[in-house]
Specification:
The chain is 44% helix and 16% strand. By secondary structure, it is α/β, with parallel strands linked by helices. The strands form two sheets. It has a six-stranded parallel sheet with strand order 2-1-3-4-5-11, with helices on both faces. A six-stranded mixed sheet has the order 7-6-8-9-10-12, sandwiched between helices. The protein is elongated. The chain starts with 5 loop residues before the first helix and ends in a 6-residue tail after the last strand. Keywords: DNA-binding, Transcription, Transcription regulation.
């Protein structure tokens, strides 16, 4: 059966289409008796507004675009849950793209979203993104933009991040207070904002306790599955760390597995803590200590900022960066 339209309702009730339209919107111009008549008939006939027609009329699609590096990443899947919770409550649909850590795919994603005439864009930058001209271009076209988690200082926009510095500082300090002094830091590519913030937190904790920073204990990993294992094997053999602090979900699991494969006892020989949103951290053997990013809260806050801008509740000129605290979750691996 074809979907019923406003014209169909108007014809059935012998009303004008403009009267039916106003009645469906609850307009004060229409008396209560007519509103009741129209609404009851619309419900009976299972009438639903045409989103395309509405978007043309209101010059809004009631949809927002989201671009993340990888949905399979626990952090991004939780952030998307936060975004969708806000969007649904405020009557918006969410269109999700993955960049798969590719700058070219990220640019293509942006073009597709603009082509779909989304009302705004939320993005966490890919691992290859070193220039933000594609984002500046959509801003020039009036598309509201919020960047979250992986941000760039080269783009002037609202931003939402975790307190990466403080989280890394607390992870490193905990390891130091547990008696560790040769703390390896296994992290993501150096061009990422989060990588540098967490490295600075690691350095600051070492400095507080007068432990010299050793660049040989810091290793950067690409995004291939084998990268972390090769790096951690090399660090274990050449640097003999007594603790490891990893900077992401992927690195935590790969490094943890590599240490176990070497037959090294955790935490007796090497203590271990991750900067992660792993839901299975407590199931590892031993249970993994983590600095937990507030992924849901980051997604929720970013979506609220974007929708407030779209609905003119927040000025485009009044851009700001919101930093959300991390949470320390200590378990057996770092004792």
């Amino acid at each position: 059966m074809e979907a019923i339209t406003i014209k169909d309702i108007a014809k059935a009730l012998n009303l004008s289409t403009s009267t039916v339209s106003r009645a469906l919107r609850g307009s004060y111009e229409i008396n209560n008796e007519t509103k009741k008549l129209v609404l009851e008939y619309a419900e009976k006939m299972n009438y639903h507004p045409n989103p395309i027609a509405l978007s043309l009329k209101e010059n809004r699609s009631k949809a927002i675009g989201v671009i993340v590096p990888e949905i399979a990443n626990n952090f991004f899947s939780q952030a998307i849950n936060g975004i969708e919770a806000v969007a649904y409550d405020r009557g918006y649909h969410v269109v999700i793209f993955q960049s798969h850590e590719s700058y070219e795919r990220e640019r293509s994603n942006i073009q597709h979203l603009v082509g779909r005439k989304v009302d705004g864009v939320l993005i966490s930058l890919s691992g290859q993104t070193t220039t933000v001209e594609h984002l500046q271009e959509i801003q020039k076209r009036g598309v509201p933009l919020v960047v979250f988690d992986r941000i760039s200082n080269d783009i002037i926009s609202n931003k939402v991040i975790a307190d990466n510095f403080q989280g890394a500082y607390e992870a490193t300090e905990h390891l130091i207070l547990s008696g560790r002094k040769r703390i390896a830091h296994i992290t993501s590519p150096s061009l990422l904002y989060t990588t540098n913030e967490r490295l600075e937190g690691y350095k600051a904790a070492l400095a507080k306790y007068n432990i010299p920073f050793d660049e040989n204990l810091v290793r950067y990993c690409g995004f291939e599955p084998e990268d972390a294992k090769q790096v951690i094997f090399e660090v274990l053999e050449t640097q003999k760390p007594d603790a490891i602090f990893t900077a992401s979900d992927r690195l935590a699991l790969d490094s943890f597995a590599a240490v176990k494969a070497k037959g090294i006892q955790i935490p007796e020989q090497v203590a271990f803590i991750g900067f992660t949103n792993l839901g299975v951290a407590h199931l590892l053997d031993p249970p993994l200590s983590t600095i937990v990013q507030p992924a849901f809260a980051i997604g929720k806050t970013a979506a609220e900022m974007l929708l407030d801008t779209i609905e003119n509740k927040q000025s485009n000129a009044a851009v700001k960066t919101i930093k959300i605290p991390t949470e320390v979750n200590l378990r057996t691996s770092s004792e």
